[in-house]
């Protein structure tokens, strides 16, 4: 297993660790749970000023050109502090533009994205990440394109200024950019997530009209495939960070809570599961950084695909197990929303589904590794 951590990635890891610790303490996370946006606009602007939105964007468009692998340390640190922002979806839209090699669209949109414009993906129609059908259609309308159909689970759609939408155009799968200004009134309807640090919506694109040059060039099917794998990798990195934080929360409790005159952390029945959490977390980080080493600006090969799927499967289950143990070990208090363990188990339930759960990825790994 090849794992490489460049000097730039190491510096990003140190900076992100400090930034996320200072900007996203648990009280700040809880304060945002009932907010409309779900994130702090000032923190988002600081992220843009740090250049994090451009780590994978070429220097010609205002980025640093370090590649998608350099976003992994940033996302891991965000996961550890439960710092929710539109970061993942925004960098994935920027990555799609570059992979499509749509030069005019890159020149028009990438500098704005690097500067802090919120962009998001609109790929799902059934809510199932394993579903490949595209029912949203784009048809010619006097030199423009008119859309018909809806997308679901669109992250941060209320705040997004730009949507990357998958559609069927002339009987082919295509990707196109839709500005928020093209949507009709009431087109965005917020959905309820089990993880209240997230925001997602159902977006009705019916009636939206965009110019024909909004279509991305390149093989849309291949780009969507790469986006799904890179999205799985980024959320795996976030889950690995959240697993580490959940483990720390539980261990701190085990070292202070006494029962029958003894610290409960002294009991082997609690020690052994925590060792398993530690091993799962370390395995997840290994898979994540292995995949980060393999991904590049080229279309992902079988090795990179396998690595991304392994990372998502391992990290999803690592966070799920860690969060479940956190709730159980906190006793009756762990089942109350006031206990921070609830934040992690809700994130685990949501994170394991987005971009495919462990079963989804292992099913596809079987054909890659065994056929």
UniProtKB/TrEMBL annotation:
The keyword Oxidoreductase belongs to this UniProt entry's keyword annotation: yes
Q: Which residues form the Acyl-CoA dehydrogenase/oxidase N-terminal domain?
A: 6-116
> What are the alphabetically sorted keywords of the record?
FAD, Flavoprotein, Oxidoreductase
Needed cofactors, names only, are:
FAD
InterPro entries the record matches: Acyl-CoA_Oxase/DH_mid-dom_sf (IPR046373), AcylCo_DH-like_C (IPR036250), AcylCo_DH/oxidase_C (IPR009075), AcylCoA_DH/ox_N (IPR013786), AcylCoA_DH/ox_N_sf (IPR037069), AcylCoA_DH/oxidase_NM_dom_sf (IPR009100)
Which intervals hold domain Acyl-CoA dehydrogenase/oxidase C-terminal?
233-365
Pfam families found in the cross-reference section: Acyl-CoA_dh_1, Acyl-CoA_dh_N
Q: Which family does it belong to?
A: Belongs to the acyl-CoA dehydrogenase family.
Q: What is this protein called?
A: Acyl-CoA dehydrogenase
């Amino acid at each position: 297993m090849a794992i490489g951590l460049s000097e730039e990635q190491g510096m990003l890891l140190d900076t992100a660790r400090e930034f996320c610790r200072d900007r996203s303490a648990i009280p700040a996370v809880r304060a945002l749970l009932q907010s409309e946006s779900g994130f702090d606009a000032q923190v988002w602007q600081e992220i843009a000023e740090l250049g994090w939105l451009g780590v994978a964007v070429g220097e010609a468009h205002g980025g640093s050109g370090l590649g998608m692998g350099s976003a992994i340390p940033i996302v891991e640190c965000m996961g550890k502090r439960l710092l929710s922002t539109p970061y993942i979806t925004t960098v994935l839209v920027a990555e799609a533009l570059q992979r499509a090699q749509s030069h005019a669209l890159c020149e028009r949109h990438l500098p704005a994205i690097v500067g802090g414009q919120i962009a998001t993906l609109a790929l799902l129609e059934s809510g199932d990440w394993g579903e490949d059908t595209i029912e949203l259609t784009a048809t010619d309308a006097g030199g423009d394109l008119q859309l018909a159909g809806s997308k679901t689970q669109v992250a941060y759609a209320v705040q997004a200024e730009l949507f990357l939408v998958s559609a069927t155009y002339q009987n082919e799968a295509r990707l196109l950019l839709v500005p928020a200004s093209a949507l009709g009134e009431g087109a965005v309807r917020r959905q309820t997530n089990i993880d209240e640090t997230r925001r997602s919506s159902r977006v009705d694109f019916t009636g939206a009209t965009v110019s024909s040059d909004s279509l991305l060039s390149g093989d849309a099917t291949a780009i969507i495939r790469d986006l799904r794998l890179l999205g799985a990798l980024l959320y795996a990195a976030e889950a690995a960070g959240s697993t580490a934080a959940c483990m720390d929360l539980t261990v701190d409790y085990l070292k202070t809570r006494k029962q029958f005159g003894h610290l409960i952390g002294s009991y082997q029945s609690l020690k052994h599961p925590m060792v398993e959490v530690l091993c799962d977390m370390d395995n997840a980080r290994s898979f994540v950084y292995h995949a980060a080493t393999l991904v590049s600006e080229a279309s992902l090969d079988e090795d990179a695909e396998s690595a991304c799927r392994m990372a998502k499967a391992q990290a999803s289950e690592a966070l799920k197990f860690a969060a479940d143990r956190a709730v159980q070990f906190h006793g009756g208090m762990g089942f109350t929303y006031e206990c921070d363990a609830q934040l992690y188990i809700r994130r685990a339930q949501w994170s394991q589904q987005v971009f495919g759960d462990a079963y989804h990825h292992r099913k596809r790994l079987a054909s890659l590794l065994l056929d």
